[in-house]
Every structure is written in C-alpha cells, then in structure tokens.
Amino acid sequence: MILIKTTLITNLTVADICAGFEFSEAEGKGLFGWSGKLTIQPEYQRNYLYAQNNGEKERAVIDSILKGYPIGLLYLNKPRADEDKYEILDGQQRVTSLGRYIKDLFSVTDSSGHQQYYSSLAQDVQNLILQTPLTIYICEGTETEIKSWFKTINIVGIALNTQETLNSVYSGSFVTLAKAQFSNSRNTKLNIWRSYVKGNVLRQDYLRTAFEWIVKSSDDTKISEYMSRHRNDTNIDELKNYFDGVIDWIKKIFTAPKSEMCGLEWGRLYETYHENKYDAAELDAEIEKLYADEAVTDKRGIFEYVLGGSKDAKLLHIRFFEESTKKTVYARQTEAAKKIGKSNCPLCAIGGGRNSTKIYKYSEMDADHVTAWSKGGATDIKNCQMLCKTHNRAKGNF
C-alpha cells in the first residue's frame, strides 16, 4: 500500500516558482527554480516537449495565464524531510513553459495579433503573469512510492513512452550520463546519427536504439536488466563505444548515405555482417545499380541484400511481370508450340517426357525471367517466358 504524505500550499506565485529559473538548451530541460530550491526536471522526468510543433503547447500555457484560466495542480516531491529541497513530480512542462517565457525564449500572439515576448509586454501584464497564484501539493514518500505514483499520474496528456518510463525507474548516475549523450539536442554527432537512426532525440529514441543495439534485442525485459545492472555506474563507456562502433562500421562500408538507411536494423546487421570483408567502392557501385533498377521495389532491402552477398532477392521485392505481359507471352508461346507440335512450356518441350507435347492452360503456368534477374536479366517482355508451374518452381533463382 502506498502511503504518500501530501501538503497543499497556495501561497506561491509564478514569480516565486520561476525565481532563479535556468534552462538547458543542450539537454532540452528546465533545471532549477524557486530560488534554487526546486529541481524542475529530475532524472526520472522526460525532456521538455512543449516547444515541439512550433511551441503550440507552451504558448497555450501563457495564453491560459493571461486569460485567467487555471493551469492545473502542480505536484512537488520532497525527497528528504530534513532539507528544504524539492523536485517537480507533475507539472514540469508547464513550469518550464512559464520560466522560458519569462526568460524571453519564445513569444505569444496577443489579442491584436502581434507577437509579444515577455520583455515587450506592458508592466501590468507582466505583473499579471508574475502574481498568478499556483496550487501545489508537496508530496513525501519513499523512492518506490514516488516513482510508482509518477507513472500513475502520467497516464494522461503526453503519455510516457517505454524508454521514458525506464529512465524514471532506473534514474541515477548512469541514466544521467546516458541522456547527456543520447538525448542531447545539441550533440554535434546527431547530424551523423540521423542518417541511420530514426526518432526524436527528446523522446529518448536515440537512447532506446543504443540500448537495443547493445543488448541485441528490443525486448523491454533485457533493456531493463541492462539498466538495472548499470544503474549506479559512473561512466557509459560500454554503451557509448558499442553505439559508436556500429555507426563507424556503417560509415566505413557505405560511403554514400541514402535516406532509406534511416531506421534499418543496424544493430542486427552489425552483429551478422561486421566480421565480413567488403570493398566500399564495389558496394557503392552495386547499390547505385540497384537504385536505378525499376524492378527493385524495396530500396530499403538493398543494404542487407549486398551485405549478404547479393543472394537473397526476396529482400528487394522484385517487381513481377505485369499481367498483360504474361498473357501476351503466353499467347505467343502457345501459338508457336502448336505449329511444331511441342509443349508451350519450353522446358517440357526439350525434356522428351510425356509432357513434351502438352499445351498448358494459362492458369497452369507462371512467368519467369529467361536471364535471371540476379544475373542482370530485366523485368520486361523481352526477358519473359512462361513455364509450367512445376518447372518454374524448380528453376527458382530470380
């Protein structure tokens, strides 16, 4: 049973809670407020998200204040009863929006349609914002109780995703360092990572990818085990080095990034193929050839295809012959076969067996590349032949 002690306070204003406000652009979070007594974004909290989508949500917070609307309850955690220190348990997005506006980090549209930064507002309007009272509950409990409640109260609004939840569960020195590396929107390496990793850095997608790569699985249990085991580590060398190793391997063998590379299962591909020897120039040439081939309908499959020795054509989703092409070729073959008394399946005709003179129905035949696609044969009418289903399945190779 969770026994959290709560105390309601109503004597703090926006000015009080935003006193000494600091914001880290690099980490995308509010740092401190309430004259240094308040940690706005403790490690179990997500990054600041209200600035996304052109800042619609952060502007809505300020608009609510200006219109006299309540912005909702704020919950602060008091980790230690003997210290006058607090953490935001719920409401960090709203508090960060207030602090950012007072720091002139974004503007809002006034009733006349003009953009207004805080510093450009009339003094009475500034005072209206600063003097707005806040309704706050101070909560006290064990770490387990507080984090359990944190997950409960975050089931509405912008819900915590899986990695944000795991960060809250295993908050500590390891998560702090990992977020500084993989959840830092100012990390210069992002320009490279974005070519291969899909997602939103502020929603922990890059950190999630790093964990998936190093545990070689997307299973939450395995990631949880890894985070639990390393929770109190004072470095992230293993995680960082493995991630960097995968990225460096990709850059080394594929020298010309393609948009289709983003979001591929690079961790799995690295584990499967990184010990193989490749000629980067040869790979680039083959990739360009495949990109130019209209028969290749899945460009994302090209990279695993060439890594695997260009053998598994199913990865490319080769475009099959059009129905009109197959019917035209069937009619031609059947007419020619009847004239010479042979089967309209070329392989049956030369086989000398009991089907050597059999004329197959269209439904009994499949289209085939005369010269296999994997050997350079095109997917067009000049390279199409109709075979009986038995021979076509036996032939196999694209």
Describe this structure in words.
The longest helix is centred in the last third of the chain and has 18 residues, at 323-340. The protein folds into three domains: 1-157, no CATH class; 161-275, no CATH class; 323-395, DNA Binding (I), subunit A, CATH 1.10.30. Helix 7 (173-182) crosses helix 9. The chain has a six-stranded mixed beta sheet with strand order 1-10-6-7-5-4. Strands 2-3 form a two-stranded antiparallel ribbon. Helices cover 42% and strands 10% of the residues. The radius of gyration is 31 Å and the shape is elongated. The chain has 398 residues and is of the alpha+beta class.
> How would you characterize the largest beta sheet?
6 strands, mixed
User: Element order, helices and strands?
Assistant: EHEEEEHEEHEEHEHHHHHHHHHHHHEEH
What structural category do the secondary elements indicate? alpha+beta
Could you list the spans in which at least 5 consecutive residues all have pLDDT below 50? none
* Strand order of the biggest β-sheet: 1-10-6-7-5-4
Strand-helix topology:
Blueprint (H helix, E strand, L loop, with lengths): L4 E5 L4 H4 L5 E2 L4 E2 L1 E2 L4 E2 L12 H15 L7 E4 L8 E5 L1 H11 L5 E2 L5 E2 L6 H8 L5 E5 L2 H11 L8 H8 L3 H10 L7 H4 L11 H11 L4 H11 L6 H17 L12 H8 L6 H13 L9 H6 L15 H18 L5 H4 L15 E5 L14 E5 H7 L3
Parallel strand pairs: 5-7, 6-10
Antiparallel strand pairs: 1-10, 2-3, 4-5, 6-7, 8-9, 11-12
